Amino acid sequence: MEMLIWIGAAVSLLGMAGIIYCVIAVARAKREQLDDETMRARLQKVVAWNLGSLAISSLGLMMVILGIFLA
């Protein structure tokens, strides 16, 4: 079960990398000072990526917890 812990940690880090990407993408969009429609369209894409990254990170943490319980 130790392998499940390490795989879960890697999956969780992948999700965290996605969340960091979302923060950087929003900061870039804010710095560009786009008009409302363009900003809204860009942020809608980022929200989808953010939710996906959060789900992946949560799955990784669940795998880690399951590996700890089964070890």
Give a description of the structure.
The protein has 71 residues and is an all-alpha fold. The protein contains two helices and no strands. It has helices spanning 2-32, 36-70. It starts with a helix and ends with a helix.
Structural class determined from secondary elements:
mainly alpha
What is the average per-residue confidence, as pLDDT, rounded to a whole number? 94
Radius of gyration: 16 Å
Order of helices and strands: HH
| Uncertain segments | none
The general outline is rod-shaped
Helical segment tally? Answer: 2
Helix content: over 70%
Tell me the β content: under 5%
Number of strands: 0
| Major beta sheet summary | none
Distance between the termini: 5 Å
What is this entry, summarized?
It is built from 2 helices and no strands. By secondary structure, it is mainly alpha-helical. It has helices at 2-32, 36-70.
